[in-house]
Amino acid sequence: MRLTLLKNKCKFNRFLINRRFLSEERAKSSNQQNERFSSTREPFDVVINGGGIVGLSFLAALRKSPFMNDKRVLLLEQASRPSIAANATLLENRERSLGNRVSSLTAASKQFFEAIDVWSQIKPFAKEIKAMHVWAHDFYNGISFYPSSPSVSDMFYSNAVKHESNVCYIVENKHVLNALSKTASSDCIRYESSSTEITENNEYIDIVVNGKDLLSTSLLVACDGFNSFVRQNCDVNYFDLDLQQSAIVGTIEVVNELENDENDVAYQRFIPETNSVFAILPLTRNYASFVLSIPSNTGERLMSLTDEEFVDTLNDALFSRLKVTNSSFIQSAVTNIDKVLNTFLPPSLRRSRAPRSNPPHISSLQPNSHAMFPLRFGTTLPYLVTSPKGGKNNKVVIIGDASHRIHPLAGQGLNLGLGDAQLLADCLLKDINALNKTL
């Protein structure tokens, strides 16, 4: 539904992007406005506010099209220029420095990265996940997810995601950013540049950068995260909810039961007794990232534990057998019903078979790797297209975390943002192509 709404909104009057982007109307702007700034107004066709993974991916998607060769596109990023590793070397296990900010990439996200020519640089660092196992009180009564088999309809549906042999790919964010930064042309990005004011100016959007430079654009795309400056200065409602939870992330060393185990299964456990969710996301053969979602009032206590005590807490979250209820009679009844059902039900109706007989044992925590941050939910849906406050020209599009912030338990936050970037780029490029054919 979200993508359909975005696609419909992308059809907002085809004059958004056309051959009159740089029309003489901009030159007629008030001289009094220009006198406020150190330079005259710079005209652009598209300005992207935010140089994270979603913003850089959208820039790469636009630059991939020949229809954008004569268009002026600029990305503004408030951080300083990153140091880009020219030839990042992949080192396994102890030799490799692992980051605690990781993402789970779906097959659709992988194929988007392939289309914008960055996947080959990400792939050496992307851990292929062959299965995912989810459970609550009993590991063997969990649900296992495997790669889906191609259906007959996929053969006739041109937009179907190509069949993948993996459930997903786990990769550190720094390697995705490195690949995208290497691909981007330096003349399209301005670092240490913060938008400080946005206003509507006839058919354009005026952007003040660092309080002194004035830009003008036909389309402003907000990719500036959940604290989006652009969103806060637009006429769009934003629903924000404190989930009263925190997430602790970090890097752990794991020991699997088999010597030749490739550590290619992701695990997630729901723990109702402590109202928490624990996920293990493999990174290499012996190391994994973890996400522990907990009530906010327990976070500080867990962060104050020693590394050894913290590892014990994580192992307990993995291996303890939870009680379904405080009643011993009901607990015993539930256990016996499980046994009966799995004895007499046909195999097709039994619980899905776990990909491993046990989850991996956590042997250590990578020093200084764990950190905690609050969890919130936020959304502008169903509106992704808007105008600066007081405006009405609908020349601002809000995507990624700037538009929707979700709980990390499904690992879909970044994938939703990449889907936004891909679909918006497709809509714009199709409109430009259609317009060129009519001229």
TrEMBL record:
Q: Which domain of life is it from?
A: Eukaryota
SUPFAM superfamilies attached to this UniProt entry = FAD/NAD(P)-binding domain
Molecular function (GO) terms for this protein are: FAD binding; monooxygenase activity
**Keywords (A to Z) from UniProt:** Monooxygenase, Oxidoreductase, Ubiquinone
Domain FAD-binding: where? 393-431
Q: Name one Pfam family in it.
A: FAD_binding_3
Q: Tell me which GO cellular component terms the UniProt record holds.
A: mitochondrion
Write the protein's name. Answer: Ubiquinone biosynthesis monooxygenase COQ6-like protein
* Organism this protein belongs to: Dinothrombium tinctorium
